[in-house]
């Protein structure tokens, strides 16, 4: 049995993942296309899925058949979604955290969330691609919608879940610039990262995110962290050996001696990320891995659907 098989990836199937901006696609689907005129022509009905928006329900058909159908229009097309996952060594923190008796770290959380989104997009007949990076772009696939493609991407995630290598650094800005250059059609780009990077200059990171925006992609950022340990610094008041998972550097400290200064600095760093995302109209999702990947995705998709309707 694979690592991913232990988890139920179909828990969000009753929801929808819709694009807010226009996207370019190649089949009739759920999302606005830029390639049609101002007329909105009816195309067909499809059965209503529980939990999705009721905006396009055909009430006349319901009155005749007592069944819920959604009206689909010719101006709608499928979504192209590029899921980008940080696979640097800092994402393998924490080492022994269990949520509901299942082991979880930041990369496992991100891989499970990415796999769940791909499963949902496959159900919607939307196209999805996967990018995996540390200090360079290691995997980058074009967006496709086939079952074979889905299995291939799951195998990439599975491979990294089993390896969990240390001493892999991060270069998020350069990787995002490369991804922006390699995605040639308007897409929804979903990034999972803890934003612990070799480069402390946040401006370079947001220049890369703006590059995606400039190319007319919609960007969603899941900022992945362990709130208790990484934001609140809740360690027992005793000497601890802290190890940099990307460089291997070690330092022994009494946790309470630096807690106040650390918490203040990390809070300012997160607030800067939030404000930059607001400024550049990037959808920012603070993501505490202790909440579990399913509740985080469910809450985000429900909120997104309300904004879209």
Briefly summarize what is shown.
The protein is of the alpha/beta class and 309 residues long. The protein has helices spanning 59-65, 106-123, 147-163, 172-182, 202-214, 227-231, 255-279, 293-308; strands at residues 31-32, 42-47, 69-73, 76-77, 80-86, 98-99, 102-103, 127-133, 137-140, 188-193, 218-225, 239-243, 250-254, 283-288.
Topology:
Blueprint: E1 31-32, E2 42-47, H1 59-65, E3 69-73, E4 76-77, E5 80-86, E6 98-99, E7 102-103, H2 106-123, E8 127-133, E9 137-140, H3 147-163, H4 172-182, E10 188-193, H5 202-214, E11 218-225, H6 227-231, E12 239-243, E13 250-254, H7 255-279, E14 283-288, H8 293-308
Helix pairs in contact: 2-3, 4-5
CATH class of the largest domain: Alpha Beta
In CATH, the homologous superfamily of the largest domain goes by the name: von Willebrand factor, type A domain
Number of strand segments: 14
- End-to-end C-alpha gap: 40 Å
**Helicity, in percent?**
25-40%
Gyration radius from CA atoms, angstroms: 21 Å
Number of domains: 2
Structural class assignment: alpha/beta
Q: What is the CATH T-level topology of the largest domain?
A: Rossmann fold
If helices are DSSP runs of H or I spanning 4 or more residues, what is the number of helices? 8
Low-confidence stretches: 22-31, 33-40
Specify the biggest β-sheet: 6 strands, mixed
Provide the spatial order of strands within the biggest beta sheet: 9-8-5-10-11-14
Please state the average pLDDT score.
83
Bin the strand percentage.
15-25%
How would the global form be characterised? globular
Provide structural commentary.
The protein has 309 residues and is of the alpha/beta class. It folds into 2 domains: 4-16 and 78-308, Rossmann fold, CATH 3.40.50.410; 37-74, no CATH class. It has 8 helices and 14 strands. It has helices at 59-65, 106-123, 147-163, 172-182, 202-214, 227-231, 255-279, 293-308; strands spanning 31-32, 42-47, 69-73, 76-77, 80-86, 98-99, 102-103, 127-133, 137-140, 188-193, 218-225, 239-243, 250-254, 283-288. Strands 9-8-5-10-11-14 form a 6-stranded mixed β-sheet, sandwiched between helices. A two-stranded antiparallel ribbon has the order 1-4. Helix 2 packs antiparallel against helix 3 and helix 4 (172-182) runs parallel beside helix 5. It is globular. It starts with 30 loop residues before the first strand and ends with a helix.
């Amino acid at each position: 049995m694979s690592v991913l098989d232990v988890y139920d990836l179909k828990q969000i199937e009753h929801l929808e993942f819709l694009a807010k901006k226009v996207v370019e696609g190649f089949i009739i689907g759920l999302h606005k296309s830029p390639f049609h005129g101002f007329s909105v022509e009816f195309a067909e009905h499809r059965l209503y899925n529980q939990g999705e928006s009721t905006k396009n329900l055909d009430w006349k058909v319901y009155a005749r058949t007592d069944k819920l159908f959604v009206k689909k229009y010719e101006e709608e097309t499928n979504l192209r979604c590029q899921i980008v996952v940080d696979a640097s060594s800092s994402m393998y923190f924490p080492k022994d955290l269990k949520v509901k008796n299942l082991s979880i770290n930041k990369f496992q959380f991100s891989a499970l969330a990415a796999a769940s989104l791909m499963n949902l997009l496959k159900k919607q007949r939307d196209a999805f691609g996967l990018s995996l990076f540390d200090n360079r772009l290691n995997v980058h696939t074009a967006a496709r919608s086939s079952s074979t493609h889905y299995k291939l991407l799951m195998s990439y995630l599975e491979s990294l879940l089993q390896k969990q290598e240390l001493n892999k650094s991060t270069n998020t800005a350069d990787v995002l610039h490369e991804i922006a250059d390699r995605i040639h059609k308007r897409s929804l780009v979903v990034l999972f990262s803890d934003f612990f990077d070799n480069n402390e200059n946040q401006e370079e990171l947001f220049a890369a995110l703006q590059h995606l925006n400039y190319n007319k992609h919609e960007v969603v950022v899941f900022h992945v962290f362990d709130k208790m340990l990484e934001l609140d610094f809740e360690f027992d008041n005793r000497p601890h050996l802290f190890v940099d998972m990307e460089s291997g550097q070690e330092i022994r400290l009494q946790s309470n001696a630096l807690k106040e200064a650390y918490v203040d600095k990390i809070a300012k760093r997160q607030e800067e990320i939030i404000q930059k995302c607001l400024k550049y109209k990037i959808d920012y999702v603070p993501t505490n891995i202790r909440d579990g990947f399913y509740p985080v995705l469910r809450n985000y998709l429900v909120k997104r659907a309300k904004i879209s309707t």
